[in-house]
Amino acid sequence: MDENTINWQLLVQHFNDPSDDDLQQQVSAWLSANPSHQNMYEELKRVWELSADAKVLQHFNVQEESAALSALLPDKPVYELPADPISRYRWYKIAAAVLLASIGGYWFYRDANKINFLTKTTAQQIDSVILYDGSRIILHKNSSIRYASNMVKADARAIYLEKGTAFFDVQPNDQQAFEVHVNHSKITVLGTAFNVNVEGEAINVDVKSGKIKFEPRSENGVVLHGGQSIDYTPQRGITTRNSTNENADAWATKELVFVDASLAEVCKQLEDVYQVTISMKGHVPLKKLNATFRNNPLSDVFEVLEAAYPIEIEQSGQQIIITSK
């Protein structure tokens, strides 16, 4: 800083971190350039310490907030002082008060408008979240979502699926849309039940009922109704199907539907829904299974399988062994 200029941002940083030697040297050079600067410095320091906002400002991140404040100020936040010493001193007091009020207002505005997010993550278990409106999100194992803690005041009920698989049972609300953000894509819902799976850049959506709109960042969106599904990758784009995987959401709903399913397919679905490990010994029967299970105990499912196939089933904890007769 030269003799007749005040770099306000530098002084603010100095008052926030008086132990910074580099800032101290720059301020000392400015003070020694003109005896009147000492009075100005003391006045600004006194206003700073008595300011109601000073207590909050002492704890802010100087580097981040100074950069954010600079974006709001003119390109060169350096101001010329009036030539007359008396006018200069009065101008200084007004400018100091305005500066502190502006920074304090900016800080509180940022704090008041900051969105706090809640995160729900599962490991080797299935868990669920009930939102304020009764909408339910069921998370598969190794999955994670985040959402605003005060969603009721938001323009939309926005959920961010960070990884894994989630089943959404959404309550209708014409005044507040329901959005699921996956990578750089967005799913907009009015009221429906659907399943979303994300693996890297690949996204799969199965709509059980209702209607959703899927919007990837790089192309036009598509509307899906109950019984439809899509697969999407940035490289291949959107692939729409007029049928869904009947058991895509079985891990959440506990409803299994098998139509001409092989025993191997049945066992794979049972492992996912009941969180068990199934091993098969001997010849695998080729007969197809047609059956529906709605939240049945695993023992009931095994009774049906043993009646339908020439097999014996043994269970030890989460380990299942199926042996052909």
UniProtKB/TrEMBL annotation:
* Family matches, as InterPro entries: FecR (IPR006860), FecR_C (IPR032508), Ferrdict_sens_TM (IPR012373)
Question: Which top-rank group of organisms is this from?
Answer: Bacteria
As one GO molecular function, the record gives: sigma factor antagonist activity
Instruction: Tell me one Pfam family matched here.
Output: FecR
According to the entry, every stretch annotated as the Protein FecR C-terminal domain falls at 255-322
Annotated ranges, domain FecR protein: 120-213
Signal peptide span per the entry? none
PANTHER family in alphabetical order: PERIPLASMIC SIGNAL SENSOR AND SIGMA FACTOR ACTIVATOR FECR-RELATED, PROTEIN FECR
Tell me the protein's name: FecR family protein
This chain's source organism reads Chitinophaga skermanii
